[in-house]
Design a protein that fits this description.
The protein is an alpha+beta fold. It is built from 11 helices and 13 strands.
């Protein structure tokens, strides 16, 4: 069986280096997300030298489609054997269209592939989010202008070790004010709180970037993320007080500008998926993504 174990901060260098060299566009393939959300996605290991992640679910043995240099067919065969040994039905996640074709070429007719809409990543060009040009983003410019008019003393400051406690306090305020609309959302928020706590804990060691937004008197929003590879940047978390009109639009714009200034080679911002939350989906769609990165699950057929 594959030797899976929990991710720790000490694994960052090796795994980040491997995934950065792969240059995959999907947010599944970053150390940060594998580590932050290991409460949801499980432990990591290597199949035929390729990286994967596993968790046992009620209906499936769930694995991240293998990543990195190596023989993908051998890696998939090892994952199949691992699932068989665990006595569960195999499901692969995180597949983009090219990985679906690769899987079918390796094991024709052995998997049922389904799109997983809640895992589609919303990807935007840095230029779009920093400039907010054009008619399609007029409403976002209006929100920013309204915020700047109401709060003329607004400012931003990078998140550092010194102001990280203030960022944590703002995050707790957001959770205190946010009432989940369903049991599913309540459970998702519980997992998110675990994930974001790990982000705060590892902020410096993981080389993360962050930005706080103040209305001139108090912090009202923050955003944080990490560079994925040469051209992609992953925005991991973003929160704003919903009773401060325009705060979300401004922190989005200002964080994008910070990324553009710090990493001029970066072309795309991956703002991750919507977790099947309708409100989050509407918010991300409203920015008119350049790419809606489709992702799929692949379930091994039970008759095999």
């Amino acid at each position: 069986m594959i030797a899976f174990r929990p991710l720790t901060l000490e694994d960052y260098g090796q795994i980040h280096g491997l995934l950065s060299s792969c240059a995959y566009p999907g947010a599944d393939y970053t150390f940060n997300n594998m580590y932050f959300w290991s409460c949801y996605y499980g432990e990591f290991g290597y199949a035929a030298g390729m990286l994967t992640q596993h968790i046992t679910l009620p209906d499936f043995e769930d694995y991240l489609y293998p990543a990195g240099p190596g023989d993908v067919k051998a890696a998939l065969a090892e994952i199949m054997e691992d699932a068989r040994a665990r006595g569960g039905r195999l499901r692969l996640r995180g597949l983009t269209g090219d990985r679906v074709r690769e899987l079918e070429a390796c094991f024709p007719g052995q998997f049922t592939v389904r799109p997983y809409r809640g895992s589609f990543d919303y990807i935007y060009t840095v230029e779009e989010l920093t400039e907010l040009k054009g008619k399609k983003l007029q409403s976002k410019r209006n929100h920013c202008n309204r915020f700047q008019t109401v709060y003329p003393d607004w400012y931003t400051e990078p998140i550092t070790g010194q102001n990280l406690p203030a960022c944590r306090a703002l995050c707790e305020q957001w959770y205190a004010l946010h009432v989940p609309g369903s049991e599913q959302e309540r459970l998702q928020l519980q997992l998110e709180r675990v994930a974001i706590a790990r982000a705060f804990e590892g902020f410096t060691r993981l080389g993360m970037d962050g930005l706080l937004l103040s209305d001139g008197e108090r912090f009202v929003a923050f955003s944080m993320g990490v560079r994925m590879n040469r051209t992609y940047y992953d925005v991991n978390f973003e929160k704003a007080l919903t009773n401060v009109a325009g705060a979300y639009s401004v922190i989005n714009r200002e964080f994008s500008r910070m990324v553009a200034e710090k990493y001029p080679e970066v072309e795309y911002l991956n703002r991750e998926d919507d977790m099947d939350q309708e409100g989050l989906r509407r918010a991300k769609e409203s920015y008119q993504p350049t790419i809606l990165l489709e992702k799929f699950t692949a379930e091994r057929k039970e008759t095999l």
